[in-house]
Amino acid sequence: MLGNFSFRTTALAMVAGVTMALAASNAHAQALEKIKEAGVIRVGVMGEQAPWGSIDAGGKNIGYDVDVANLIGEEMGVKVEFVPNAVAARIPNLLTGKVDLQMAVMGMYPDRAKAVQFTKPYAGLKIILLSSAKNKITTIEDAKDLRIGVPRGAAQDKAITAALGDVPNIRRFDDDSSNMQALVSGQVDAIGGNTTYKINLDKAAPGNDFEQKVVFNEQWMGVTTKLGDKEINDWLNQFIDKIRADGRLAAINKKWLGEDLPNFPEKLEGVPFTVQ
């Protein structure tokens, strides 16, 4: 009797598991179609981090990520609705459904890949430490006694904290613009940033002597969706292949970064480009 009960229980559990998996699969299968039916795709971008994402004098979203997102909307045949993000809100905004795609300079790292799904890379930059030319810094340890600003939870926050420990002189700010302003105003002596920070610092403080001191790592960016969302992930990967092949992505890279498109990696350890 007990054996029959156990067998029935196991069988029912298996059926329930299969049903739940199919339901989840169907929900994901419908996600791309739902966007097309709605006629709108909501894309998370940065609002104050040129050249990736910012807002011009006319209130229009502009930048590298914005241009790629507009191509996505054009290819998909839907309108693009931009949602500006704080750095720390990027993944929560995606997981809670406030955006359909996250493109706010989303660095591809193994810890993030446990929470969200990345496509193959469509952009790249370097994570660096910037400071005045007066400060002699060749390694991050040389800066251990300086006040260092970082955007809270960003790649540079993690890199500097890993190197120095969570020391009191690491000052965390809510966004990139606050981090850069802290350096310009003298609140901090150095900041963790990326290779495009210098463009913004030169606009905010012409004639400054800020320079790149330390390179922590090269960061690749992918379009981010929810885990298990295979249809959108497949569509986006095909789209990235297409705009790389026809030169449109290279043109965007040249327009905003002033450089040729980098050689993107074919794989990244711990970061799958497709739904497994």
Automatic annotation (TrEMBL):
Segments forming domain Solute-binding protein family 3/N-terminal: 40-260
Keyword field: Signal
Keyword Signal (UniProt): yes
Cross-referenced Pfam families: SBP_bac_3
UniProt keyword annotation of Signal present: yes
Localization of this protein: Cell envelope
Signal peptide from the UniProt entry: 1-29
Recorded coiled-coil stretches: none
Gene Ontology annotations for the cellular component aspect, listed alphabetically: cell envelope
Top-level division of the source organism's lineage: Bacteria
Similarity-based family: Belongs to the bacterial solute-binding protein 3 family.
Protein name: Polar amino acid transport system substrate-binding protein
Source organism (scientific name): Phyllobacterium trifolii
